[in-house]
Amino acid sequence: xxxxxxxxxxxxxxxxxxxxxxxxxxxxxxxxxxxxxxxxxxxxxxxxxxxxxxxxxxxxxxxxxxx
Length: 67
Prior knowledge:
By secondary structure, the chain is mainly alpha-helical. The protein is built from 3 helices and no strands. The chain is elongated.
C-alpha cells in the first residue's frame, strides 16, 4: 500500500470533516500540494524561461492570486 498524497489526505479530511478546522486543514493541504508541484517544476525546468515562469506562478500561489 502506497502513502497517500496531500490531495488524497485533503479529500479524506473534506469527506470526514468534524468541523471548520478540518475544512481549513484540507485547504492548506491542497495549497501545499500545489506549491510542491510548482516548486518541483521550477527546479527541474530545462530552460531559464520555464524556471522563471514557474517562479512567477509560485509567487502568485503564495499571494493567493491563483487558485
